[in-house]
Write a structure and sequence with these properties.
mainly alpha
Length: 74
């Protein structure tokens, strides 16, 4: 059985990925885009975009720009 730490780390990474995916999806819907933009650009949420990007080992600014570019293309 893997150590609890490993399971916790994977769970946090999964949650971070889901949060980023949800924000990306929300940008495509006007009724949700304001909240998604606030989260992407830095908010007072306990689980921030910056933390999610860092947990996944991604460059937060590059990821933010890619998400915004994708949303603008639609």
């Amino acid at each position: 059985m893997p150590p609890v730490h490993s399971n916790s780390t994977e769970a946090i990474k999964e949650l971070a990925g889901r949060m980023i995916l949800r924000a990306t999806q929300d940008l495509l819907h006007p009724e949700h885009s304001e909240g998604a933009l606030a989260w992407l650009n830095g908010s007072d949420a306990k689980l921030t975009f910056q933390l999610c990007a860092n947990v996944l080992g991604l460059d937060e600014e590059a990821l933010r720009q890619a998400i915004l570019k994708t949303a603008d293309a639609r």
